[in-house]
């Protein structure tokens, strides 16, 4: 590489997103990049000319290893939607003016669906204006809903945490007996895609029967059938544990969480903030059946639990970061790196690049054939798909009994 590289992180963070950042930095330096800049808070921060030289923060191999083990977005994230090109060409001119100033050869954006929309628009504008900067998307999302890739970095670690937590919750639920039984409802992230919620089935094994039911957002949720199913289970056992997606909807398209409270916050991409699904269902079941209920919302824990991250996930996240730089260096633009599964036994996975226009603003959902006919559990095909992604551990660097992370840049704390 003859010029400089700039990298940003966008959308919801993961336990593996900084491993991709480390992969971008190391590969860019190895390929001769003069400087590797980091956007502070993604494209939104870049528009305000907020960026850092990553060499000032990743000075040693230990720094790089700490970065790979640090959760959340080291550079800071954003949920900023670029307008359509014809709506605000001045804004795009501003972005490219900054890229010219920094002599940027490659622009790498680590993110999910909405981040790929940013790559698409910027690469399109580069073509229109003949600008030489190349734009590559680096996949990231615990939701695992990006099109054309077998899976996304971040998903394996989140799935590992969910499977582990579900097993511990199930074990805890059998400690005490209640005269009318106990129903525990665990709410897991997933607006339209149930990849995370389905991973609750990983709790199942020789020493654990797994959750009693799993409900994904791909299928309509019937409140009355749910109540009847729970009641039937309580006639056979004293404790019932259910995994539900935050995004489950009734047949008329209404989010279950909206049945209890209105959802007021909507982000720049039109996404409603979903929360309270488990709380509503726990209250509903308690009122209908009269049993004790618990609502557990895993919330940000499932994406921030770097202490239980998957080694496969961390290694693949680093791999796609490096592959993004390599693709840009070899002339690609308007592309996203994808993971292609080569085999399951032994598990092997490689990288390719695909046209970002076929990925941005699309969603990969759980296949209907991977959910049982009743819609209350995932099939063995789903479990076989996800299990290789959670293998191996990444030992944290422990200091005084607590994991050590790479410090957030000083500039971020002042934002």
Describe this structure in words.
The chain is α/β, with parallel strands linked by helices and 415 residues long. The protein has helices at residues 17-30, 42-47, 61-68, 89-101, 113-129, 155-173, 195-198, 223-234, 277-289, 301-304, 311-329, 380-386, 410-413; strands spanning 4-9, 36-39, 51-53, 104-111, 134-139, 182-188, 213-215, 239-245, 292-297, 335-344, 347-355, 398-399, 402-403. It starts with a strand and ends with a helix. The chain has 2 domains: 4-141 and 149-154 and 306-361 and 391-402, Rossmann fold; 158-304, Phosphofructokinase domain (Rossmann fold), CATH 3.40.50. The protein is elongated, with a radius of gyration of 22 Å. Strands 3-2-1-4-5-10-11 form a 7-stranded mixed beta sheet, sandwiched between helices.
- Rg, rounded, reads 22 Å
Helix content: 25-40%
Spatial order of strands in the largest sheet: 3-2-1-4-5-10-11
Q: What's the order of the H and E elements?
A: EHEHEHHEHEHEHEHEHEHHEEHEEH
Just give the CATH class of the largest domain.
Alpha Beta
Portion of residues in beta strands equals 15-25%
Q: What is the overall number of helices?
A: 13
> Mind telling me which CATH architecture of the largest domain this is?
3-Layer(aba) Sandwich
Describe the secondary-structure layout.
Blueprint (H helix, E strand, L loop, with lengths): L3 E6 L7 H14 L5 E4 L2 H6 L3 E3 L7 H8 L20 H13 L2 E8 L1 H17 L4 E6 L15 H19 L8 E7 L6 H4 L14 E3 L7 H12 L4 E7 L31 H13 L2 E6 L3 H4 L6 H19 L5 E10 L2 E9 L24 H7 L11 E2 L2 E2 L6 H4 L2
Parallel strand pairs: 1-2, 1-4, 4-5, 5-10, 6-8, 6-9, 7-8
Antiparallel strand pairs: 2-3, 10-11, 12-13
Helix pairs in contact: 1-3, 1-11
């Amino acid at each position: 590489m003859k010029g400089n590289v700039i990298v940003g992180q966008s959308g919801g963070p993961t336990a593996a997103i900084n491993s991709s950042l480390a992969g971008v930095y190391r590969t860019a330096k190895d390929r001769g990049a003069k400087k590797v800049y980091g956007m502070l808070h993604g494209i939104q921060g870049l528009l305000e000319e907020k960026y850092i030289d990553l060499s000032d923060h990743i000075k040693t191999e230990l720094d790089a290893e700490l970065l790979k083990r640090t959760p959340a977005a080291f550079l800071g994230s954003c949920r900023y939607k670029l307008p359509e090109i014809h709506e605000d060409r001045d804004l795009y001119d501003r972005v490219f003016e900054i890229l010219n100033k920094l002599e940027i050869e490659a622009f790498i954006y680590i993110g999910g669906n909405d981040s790929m929309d940013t790559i698409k628009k910027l690469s399109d504008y580069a073509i229109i204006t003949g600008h030489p900067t190349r734009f590559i998307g680096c996949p990231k999302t615990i939701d695992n809903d990006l099109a054309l890739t077998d899976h996304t970095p971040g998903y394996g670690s989140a799935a590992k945490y969910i499977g582990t937590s579900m097993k511990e919750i199930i074990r805890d639920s059998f400690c005490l007996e209640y005269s009318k039984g106990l129903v525990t409802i665990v709410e897991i992230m997933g607006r339209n895609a149930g990849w995370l919620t389905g991973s609750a089935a990983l709790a199942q094994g020789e020493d654990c029967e797994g959750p009693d039911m799993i409900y994904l957002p791909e299928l309509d949720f019937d409140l009355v059938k749910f109540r009847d199913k729970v009641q039937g289970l309580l006639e056979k056992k004293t404790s019932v544990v259910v995994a539900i997606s935050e995004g489950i909807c009734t047949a008329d398209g209404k989010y279950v969480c909206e049945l209890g409270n209105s959802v007021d916050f909507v982000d720049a991409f039109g996404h409603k903030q979903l929360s309270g699904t488990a709380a509503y269902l726990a209250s509903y079941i308690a009122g209908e059946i009269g049993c004790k209920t618990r609502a557990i919302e895993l919330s940000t824990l499932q994406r921030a639990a770097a202490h239980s991250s998957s080694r496969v996930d961390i290694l693949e996240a680093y791999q796609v970061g490096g592959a993004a730089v390599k693709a840009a260096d070899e002339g690609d633009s308007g592309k996203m790196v994808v993971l292609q599964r080569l085999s399951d036994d032994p598990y092997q996975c490689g990288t390719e690049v695909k046209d970002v226009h076929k990925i941005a603003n699309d969603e990969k959902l759980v296949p209907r054939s991977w959910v049982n006919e009743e819609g209350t559990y995932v099939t063995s095909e789903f479990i076989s798909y996800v299990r290789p992604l959670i293998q191996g551990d990444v030992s944290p660097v422990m200091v005084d009994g607590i994991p050590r992370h790479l410090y957030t840049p000083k500039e971020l704390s002042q934002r």
